[in-house]
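Lab notebook page, bench 4
Experiment: in silico fold of construct C2
Operator: M.H.
Input chain length: 120 residues
Purpose: comparison with the prior construct
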Amino acid sequence: MLDRPDPPATRYHRARNRGRNVAGVVVRKGWELVQRYGSIGPTSAAAARFGAFGEHSVVCFPYEAIVNEYAVSIGAHTVIGKGAVLSAGWGPGHPGLAPDVLRIGDRCLLGRGSSIVAHE
């Protein structure tokens, strides 16, 4: 890409480049909105499916997998990074799990791409 010659400075090429720049801005802003509204916060409907979900906590979007949310408890002021995996039990629908099989405390930070699996 860097070794290619510059396109001719025609009206068509200038308009095309402006259009591409605007499209890039729209895509980036759109992705920011998707991440903001796709994240799970304490007031979102998805947070109600967890065993507990502390105030000012967030599970950032996109997350890889959250298995058996009802057995996952998240403390207050905790951030679960993008691409995280949270799993309670041996698999989806694992019977008889307590609401805090996987307990993440207050003021914790799980980095991007982290995985936590709890069985008991």
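Observations: The longest helix spans residues 11-38. Residues 7-38 form one domain.
Next step: discuss at group meeting.
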